[in-house]
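Problem: given the chain below (257 residues), write out its structure.
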Amino acid sequence: MSPSRQEEAIATLREQGFVVMRGFARPHEVQALRAQAERHLRERIEPIEYEADVRYPGAPASRRAEGGHTARRLLDAYGRGPLFARWATDARVGAWLAACFGEAPVLSTVHHNCVMTKHPAYGSLTGWHQDVRYWSFTEPSLVSCWLALGSERRENGGLSFIPGSHAAAFEARQFDEQKFFLDDLPENAPWIARAVCPELEAGDVVFFHCRTLHAAQGNASGQVKLSLVHTYHPQSCRPVPGTRSASRPGVPLEPAP
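Solution.
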């Protein structure tokens, strides 16, 4: 990527809270990652978070209910073997984030670090939220890298984002007790009306800020949607000691040669 294109993409991220990078991953990388993810899903290789565990709208009531073993996330992607680890620490991701942060990036092994799955049946809806709601760092300056392992649209549960929401000073009353942005609150309506759902193809990446409001509908297609997501923070932005964010060490990304 040319320096001018990179600067433009970083400016977009800073302005709207997310940016789409087309064809960021190579086709053979995407194919290998998807095949590995499908195998881990098929063989139920733990750790796995199930839809029944989170109980969002559309999820089974329990693991004993019909559809109760529908996976929501394959957890600890970085620890699932060298293929996933290589992507999480890829030099292209590291270089892009280093330019964005102005310093070396660090992979969080606690937050995200997973393969997100969205099943046609029992795949739940995810309301408007900011990822930073349960994270504890010295600064809210984390950025996530979402890699599409196939086509993503609103119809199959693709992510929607609210541009500019990462820079807004929302009040606590605009969120419910689980820190979801209230979609029936009149003052939230103008924000939600601004939402966009970028259409992604396999290999496209979305970088998005931890304060950017985003959501996802259910999957109305006939195929499982798979996405690989990791979260990174600047080296100077540290997890708060004693919190879940500090429960596992991060992985510093090596500078590009």
